[in-house]
Specification:
Largest sheet: 6 strands, mixed
Order of helices and strands: EEHHEEEHEHH
Distance between the termini: 35 Å
Helix content: 25-40%
Structural class: alpha+beta
Number of strands: 6
Strand content: 15-25%
Amino acid sequence: MGAKGRAALKVGDGAMELTIREATAADYAAICDIFAEADDLHRQHLPHIFQKPSGPVREQEYILGLLADENAGLFLAQLGSQVVGLVCVLAREAPAVPTFVPRRYATVDSLVVQQSFRRRGIGRALMEKAQAWAQAQGLERMELHVWEFNQEAIAFYQQLGYENLSRRMGKRLDSVDHSFIAEAAPMPPARRRAPIHLQVSNVSGRGSLLCC
């Protein structure tokens, strides 16, 4: 990838110029098309979490907000005149909690390359652009979240040097027994009670309080 974010990429029998550039408001429709493909994949694998929206896949106000946010970078991969991928990277700060080391880091919020253009180095070029943006912001680390079903993406990130930091887990509750509600004794009249003070000590994420 050259200094201007351009490189020749072979497509079919010929070669086309790949450009990695900042997104603009005029790219809104193309951005939605890219996100739609990723959203469809997530709905297929996690229908209990993701659903098809009744309107645009991303509201225009949301995209314009990213473009105006100095703590966000939204970059597109373009082949000729066609947008074929995107990366969104955000600057974050550690929570203001004594157990966390104060730090500013980058998180890759989204990385999408259209299916027909994968395995051509486009995803890597987008990630390099995201990393360059993070370094320019003075951020010290890159982090990201990926769903467990997406083994292809996990292998890709591992090739780039990313390692597991945590594991988010879930359990389906097939049924809930509400019989105890009907059998429960009537609640006594409300009485004034002394305030209860709870001390939260496990905020480091080492236990089950914060496991994200």
